[in-house]
TrEMBL record:
<protein>
    <recommendedName>
        <fullName>Epoxyqueuosine reductase</fullName>
        <ecNumber>1.17.99.6</ecNumber>
    </recommendedName>
</protein>
<keyword id="KW-0479">Metal-binding</keyword>
<dbReference type="Pfam" id="PF08331">
    <property type="entry name" value="QueG_DUF1730"/>
</dbReference>
<dbReference type="InterPro" id="IPR017900">
    <property type="entry name" value="4Fe4S_Fe_S_CS"/>
</dbReference>
<feature type="active site" description="Proton donor">
    <location>
        <position position="153"/>
    </location>
</feature>
<comment type="function">
    <text>Catalyzes the conversion of epoxyqueuosine (oQ) to queuosine (Q), which is a hypermodified base found in the wobble positions of tRNA(Asp), tRNA(Asn), tRNA(His) and tRNA(Tyr).</text>
</comment>
<feature type="binding site">
    <location>
        <position position="263"/>
    </location>
    <ligand>
        <name>[4Fe-4S] cluster 2</name>
    </ligand>
</feature>
<dbReference type="Pfam" id="PF13484">
    <property type="entry name" value="Fer4_16"/>
</dbReference>
<dbReference type="GO" id="GO:0052693">
    <property type="term" value="F:epoxyqueuosine reductase activity"/>
</dbReference>
<dbReference type="InterPro" id="IPR013542">
    <property type="entry name" value="QueG_DUF1730"/>
</dbReference>
<feature type="binding site">
    <location>
        <position position="153"/>
    </location>
    <ligand>
        <name>cob(II)alamin</name>
    </ligand>
</feature>
<feature type="binding site">
    <location>
        <position position="217"/>
    </location>
    <ligand>
        <name>[4Fe-4S] cluster 2</name>
    </ligand>
</feature>
<keyword id="KW-0846">Cobalamin</keyword>
<keyword id="KW-0408">Iron</keyword>
<keyword id="KW-0170">Cobalt</keyword>
<keyword id="KW-0411">Iron-sulfur</keyword>
<feature type="binding site">
    <location>
        <position position="177"/>
    </location>
    <ligand>
        <name>cob(II)alamin</name>
    </ligand>
</feature>
Amino acid sequence: MGHAYNRRMPTASPSSPPDYAVLARDIKRWAIELGFAEAGISGTDLGEDEGHLERWLEHGHHGEMDYMARHGTRRSRPAELEPGTQRIISVRMDYIPPGTANAWGVLEDAEAGYVSRYALGRDYHKLMRNRLQKLAGRIHAVVGDFGYRAYVDSAPVLEKALARNAGLGWIGKHTVLINRRAGSYFFLGELYTDLPLPVDAPASAHCGSCSRCIEICPTQAILGPYRLDAKRCISYLTIELKGSIPEDLRVPIGNRIFGCDDCQLICPWNKFAQHTTEPDFAPRHSLDGARLVELFGWSEDEFLKRTEGMAIRRTGYEGWLRNIAVALGNAPPSVQARAALDARADHPSPIVREHVAWALARQQR
């Protein structure tokens, strides 16, 4: 979890209140000037989404992500999370850098490691929070002191539902937000505020009868439209899960070593995806298609040094080795793969040893 920046102060009482319609238009313009692709404004009513969340939790689809249940209704009731909240400014930022190795090509190369495209460069959390702070500063220059709090995946926030209500896109059948003009390869952030800004119209859905995302999921984690079982999702298995990956899900994981993009790659709307203009999101250490054997050879110090400031750090070194061991088990049998696995066969971590043993057995098939 990251940290939110906040500034809770009594709203100033200017001699003449601001024109909130003009301010809303200015906020959207400032957001783009600060590097966001788009901004929208919504209210705080998430009643229908709260019911969907409660049913998802009741079915246990959150797996080991206990924090999803721990926060109760603060996730779906913004004013409970941040008292005084009247409006939420949602922003999005594209993340696919130009020149990134073709995702399908990497997935088809069983000796390469596939890293979800959002995680190839700098971690977005701090970068986006800093920009949201600057956006709040511009608002402050117009209205004086006001209450706000900035979030980027850093608190119990239903960010996709808020972004949908702010007109930034609709939630697709794979539960990812889709924008008609930009696909789904973007990050989201929010500025909770006590300003009575005019709200935008929610985005309408445009998935139609398409079910490609459901059909392509390697582990059948998408149980049906808008129903994701995180326990089967490769992003959960390779990032959130800290223990052993269930054996029946290891082969379907293929060479995905951090996250998964299949449901987005197959989505027809991503033909409209926009390249990011943010240089910090460019791939580091050739991670858009690096060799599995090479990555498996990283020491813990190398892992920590090379993933500094990156989302990949979230899996931890033990998880990194576990994930690559699975990918090596799915790779074509080779002397190089077996040698790399043999070198980790006596690793101090029982999790790593278990997955290495499984991979070695697969390499001898």
